[in-house]
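Justification of computing resources. Each target in the renewal requires a structure prediction run like the one illustrated here; the chain below, 219 residues long, is used simply to show the kind of job we budget for.
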Amino acid sequence: MKYKLLSFTLLSLSLSTAGFAEGWQELFNGKDLTGWKANTHPDSFSVVDGLLKAHATNIISSHLFYIGDQTSGTVNFKNFELEATVRCDGIANSGIFFDTAINSGEGPHLHLGKGYEVQLNNQDRDQRKTGSLYAVVDLLKSPVDETQWFKIRFRVVGKHVVIWVNDKQVVDYTEESPPKRGKGREKRVIDPNGGAIALQAHDPSSTYYFKNIRIKKIE
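Resulting structure tokens:
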């Protein structure tokens, strides 16, 4: 009996520390927005039933940046893998930015001018669908039904970006030198010093939910 009890204890300990051993860091606690900060219209983000809800309350898009325990600024990530479980209500647009900055909103709708966006979208008016590396490697058809929970995962190592949707690879891109970018997108490039992570509340007709947001640094 003592042997069985010890075995069960060791198994429980192994399971409880598995995430730590794998090097994953949880970014969202499922309770509130501790560790996150919006660049504008903070009421565009809330926590509902343990889910992080992104729903723009203004025609100007809002972005929620991971700031960790800092009182100002953001946490910069370089060489990492990020994953999140997401879904939307009906027809909706959102995205996850990386290598961006909290003060990089540009234009009348304050779209982030710096960094890359991993697209989440099933709107007909935007032909860049879920899994796209926005305006760099675009998917013309969504690989999933966005109204059902699915996993988005991407890895950034140096100038190499890989994106998976439900563990299916949809993008494999290496930034050329110099990168070819259209007017107004010149800052959509890899920052050698890394950059911030941000979630997008795109427009008042779009609602996206996020959970299990975590990141792992790659040495």
